């Protein structure tokens, strides 16, 4: 019969597998952006990965609740278990967001060859930076390294700046050729979705910092906003 430490170790392993499956969905996005085209086989793989992610999310939630009820862990472990539940739920939503990107890629490819080329020129660099942040988070989780987490906070600003610049460039392309308005709008939507995905990663980062250092970054952020 498992003790508390064994249960938490198992939950961390399940959560890491969840993160790795989401990372593969992000890779699928990157592959389609780089090819500037929709790939049916990759989309099929994404659907299978989504099921796996959903199953891990449910298992992590159920096992965490069982662990809390059985062992009544002290504050530190209790915070970890709650973090795992919340982060697994957010990760599942992040997978849904990435899956939705693939249908947008298909729509852009079908409506405009010219704008489809921007999947590689414009969207791919944003997605690549986003992947770097996400893999940094995975690495920090494995190593319990808060220094990596703090370094990721500044990388999100790069995503925001790049998204703003790319959105302006896409709008200029749409002005030159009104027939590209629909596909251009979808390109902007992809930019925003990747920006949102990066924001979700930061939420994961904040929660892990709280576990490692006891600092509630979200609370500090809200207090700072109130001062402003």
Topology:
Elements (H helix, E strand, L loop, with lengths): L3 H32 L4 H32 L3 H37 L1 H4 L1 H26 L2 H31 L4 H33 L3 H11 L1
Helix pairs in contact: 1-2, 1-3, 1-5, 2-3, 3-7, 5-6, 5-7, 6-7
Silhouette: elongated
Structural class comes to: mainly alpha
Whole-number average pLDDT? 93
Low-confidence stretches: none
- Largest beta-sheet details: none
The helix count comes to 8
The run of helices and strands is: HHHHHHHH
Give the number of DSSP strands: 0
* Strand portion: under 5%
Using only C-alpha atoms, the radius of gyration works out to 19 Å
Helical amount: over 70%
Pfam families: PhoU (PF01895)
Domain PhoU: 32-99, 129-203
Protein name: PhoU domain-containing protein
Organism: Fusobacterium mortiferum
Can I get a quick summary?
This is PhoU domain-containing protein. This protein has helices at residues 4-35, 40-71, 75-111, 113-116, 118-143, 146-176, 181-213, 217-227. It has 228 residues and is mainly alpha-helical.
Q: Could you characterize what this model shows?
A:
With 228 residues, this protein is mostly helical. 90% of the residues lie in helices and 0% in strands. It holds the Pfam family PhoU. InterPro entries: PhoU, PhoU-like_sf, PhoU_dom.
List keywords for this structure.
single chain; about 230 residues; mainly alpha; 8 helices; about 0% strand; PhoU; PhoU domain-containing protein
């Amino acid at each position: 019969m498992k003790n508390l430490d064994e249960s938490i170790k198992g939950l961390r392993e399940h959560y890491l597998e969840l993160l790795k499956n989401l990372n593969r969905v992000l890779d699928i996005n990157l592959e389609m952006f780089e090819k500037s085209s929709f790939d049916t086989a990759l989309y099929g793989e994404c659907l299978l990965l989504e099921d796996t992610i959903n199953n891990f999310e449910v298992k992590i939630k159920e096992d965490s609740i069982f662990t809390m009820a059985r062992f009544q862990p002290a504050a530190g472990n209790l915070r970890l278990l709650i973090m795992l539940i919340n982060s697994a739920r957010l990760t599942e939503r992040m997978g849904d967001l990435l899956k939705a990107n693939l249908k947008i890629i298909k729509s852009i490819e079908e409506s405009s060859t010219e704008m489809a080329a921007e999947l590689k020129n414009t969207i791919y660099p944003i997605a690549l930076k986003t992947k770097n942040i996400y893999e940094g988070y995975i690495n920090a989780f494995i190593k319990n390294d808060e220094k990596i987490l703090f370094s990721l906070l500044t990388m999100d600003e790069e995503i925001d700046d790049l998204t703003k610049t790319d959105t302006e460039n896409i709008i200029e392309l749409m002005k030159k050729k009104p027939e590209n308005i629909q596909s251009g709008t979808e390109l902007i939507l992809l930019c925003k979705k990747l920006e949102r995905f990066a924001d979700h990663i930061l939420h994961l980062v904040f929660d892990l910092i709280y576990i490692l250092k006891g600092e509630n970054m979200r609370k500090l952020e809200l207090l700072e906003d109130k001062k402003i």
